[in-house]
Amino acid sequence: MKLRFWGVRGSFAMSGRDYLRYGGNTTSIELVTAAGERLLVDLGTGATELAKELMTTEFGKGAGRLPIVLTHTHLDHIQGLPFFTPFFIKGNEIQILGADPISGLSLESTLQNQLSPYYSPLNGLENLAAGVTIRSFVPGTSLSVPGFAVTTAAFPHGSMWTTGLRIAADQKVVTVLTDVEYPSPDEPLPEALALAEDADLLVHDAMHADRDYELRKGWGHSPARAGVVVAERAHAKRLALFHHSPDATDDMIDEVVARTAASTAVPVFAAAEGNYLDI
Amino acid sequence: MQITFWGVRGSYPVPGAATVRYGGQTSCVEARASSGETVIVDAGTGMRSLGNKLLGEANGEPRQYHVLLSHVHWDHIQGLPFFSPAYVPGTRISIYALLTAANELDQVIGGITRHEFFPMPLEAVPAAFDFHQVEPGVDFVIGAFHVTPIALNHPFGSVGYRIDADGSSWAYVSDTAPFDQVLHKQHFLAGPEPLSPDDQVALAAMRGALVQRLKGVDTVVYDTHFLPEEYARFPHYGHSTPDQALDICVEAGVRSLVLYHHAPAHSDDQMDQIAASYLAKGAQRGIDVLTSFEGMTIPIGRPEKPA
Lengths: 279, 307
Hints:
A: seven-stranded mixed sheet, B: alpha/beta, seven-stranded mixed sheet, 7 helices
C-alpha cells in the first residue's frame, strides 16, 4: 500500500512561503493498493490538487471509480468537494461514505446544503455530472471498499463527533485519527488503541504544540503528545503528526517534530504534501 | 482613501509554491479613509489575516466593523468564522448583502457556522452581528464612506459597490459575467441558454447601469477570473476576462483598472504574463491596469501635486 498526503493542514488553508515544505492545503489523504485500487480520506483543499492528477487518468474519460471516506463534515474536511473535477465528468462513479454529522441531519443533507444555491453555483448534488452516491454509516461498523478493509469508531470532537479509521490493504495497516481529543493526552480512549494496534503508520491529530494545549482544551484537537501515547501503547510502527495548526510555520513544525521525536522510540515525522510513501 | 488586498484569488484558497507572490487566499479587500475608518469588502479567506491586523490595531479592544458582501458563495464568506475580532466580547459586526431568496440573511450567514460545518455557531460567537439588506441603486452611508450597490451578472445574484470617500472613489465589481452571452438567474446552468428578448433587455439595462455608476470613478477592482480562451469554454460560470473589464472601464472613463479574483489555476508566472500583457493593452486604451496581489495597498485618486 502507498499513501500520499495531499493536504495536512487543519482548520484553514495557508498560502505563502512559510508553509511550502509541509504544505498549506486542508486535509486529504490518498491510499493506493499494489493492485492500483484507490481510497481517498477527506475532501479538504488538498483534494483539488489530487483532482488535477486524476483528470489525466481514466477519471478524465469518465471511467473512474473512487470511494471517499469523510472523517467528519467540518469545512476544512469538505471544502474541496465543489472543486473536485472528477465530479464534473459523466461516467465517473464516486461514492462518499461518512457518519451523519449530528442526529437528525444526514450526511447527504449536509453536503446538499454545502452546495445550496446560496453558497455554490453548482446548486445541488444533483448537478454533479458523475454518478455520486452518498452513504451514511454508523461509526463502529466496518466498511468494505474494493481493495481495502476499513474499521471505524467515533471520537468526540468539540461539539460533534469525528470518525477514526483503521485502513488495511496488502497486509499493511494505516490508522487515521484526526480531529480527536481524549479526556487527556495521556489517557487515549480505548477505541483509539484498538484502531491503532500494530499499525504500520498512525496518522494522528497534532493541531497543538504540547505547550499550547492547556489553553485550547475542549476545542476538539490533540497535542502532539497524544499521538505518541497512542503509538506507544498500541505498538504502531511509525507516527505521522497531522492536521497542523494554521499558525504553525514550517520552522515551527520542524521544532515540534524534533521535540516529539526526542520523547519516544517510535519513529515520528510530520505529514507533508508531496510524494507517495511506501507503507 | 486607500485600499488593501487581503485575498485576490477566486473560487477556493490555493496554497503552494505557485501562488507565493500573488497570494492564494480568496476575496477580501479593505478600504481605509483618511480618518482611519475602514470598511471591508467580501469575507473570503483573506479576512483571517486582515482580522489579525485589525485586532492588533485595536489593541485587542472591541470595535465596530462593517463588511460589504458581493454575494454569499463560499469563496466570499469562508473567512468570516476566522475573523479574530469576532471573538472579542463587545465587538459589533455589521454585514451588508443582497437578499437573494426568501431565507433571512442571518440564516444564510449563520448557516456557514452551523454545527456540521464549524465548531462554533454564530449565536455563540461573542461579537454581536447585525444584518442589512442592500438594493442595487439604493445608496447608503457608513461613516466616511458613501456606498452605492450595483447589480451584477452572477449565478443567484451578486452586487458590486461604488465607494466614495475623501473626495475620491473606487468600485468593487466582482463577481460578474459580461453582459452579452449569458443572463444569470436563480437556477443551475449546465451551459449557456438561449437569450429571450427580455433577457437581452435585462442584460443591456444591467450593463448600462454599471457603466453609469462607474462614471468618474478613479479605480475599479474587477472580476477578471478568466483569460479569453478560458471564458470561451466556460461562459456560464459567471466570471469575466480582463478584456471585458477594459471595455466597461473605457466606456465609463475610469483612470485605473485592477485585475482581481484570479483563477486558482493561474500560477505566479502566468500572472506575471497576464499583468504585463494587460498593462500594455490598457496603456493603448488610456487606462492604468494593475494586477492585484495579496498585501498590495494602493491610494485612490490622483496623487496631489506638491504645492
